[in-house]
Amino acid sequence: MAAIDCRNFDAPDETRPFVGGMGRLDLVDTGDGAVGRAVFLPGWKWSEHVQPLAGTDSCRADHTGYVVSGRMKVVMDNGESAEFGPGDYMRVHPGHNAWVVGDEPCVTLDWTGFADYAKPSG
């Protein structure tokens, strides 16, 4: 096993487009799990652009990540909410909706919640 692993998200192992062409998820398989870079375009909303793929009432992914650019609002099923922007660490448990805030794409990196994200159910 190599002591160094250098990968680039511009050459991912897998890319999953969001419904309506509203962005994509690029995945790199590290051997220890998937790490993802998501690009959410302005107007993207989980309940419109990922829910049809997931088939669940709210997002069931458990996210641990970092916001590279843009802004995203996350609202938990219980009503708790937060807005994340560039430089923010984010930890979001399952059971939420989310959407892009503003006119800039939101780019995030996630090392726990993207392995099955935007993957068609069934």
UniProtKB/TrEMBL annotation:
InterPro entries this protein is in? Cupin_2 (IPR013096), RmlC-like_jellyroll (IPR014710), RmlC_Cupin_sf (IPR011051)
Question: Where is the Cupin type-2 domain positioned along the sequence?
Answer: 63-111
**Recorded superkingdom:** Bacteria
Q: Could you tell me what this protein is called?
A: Cupin
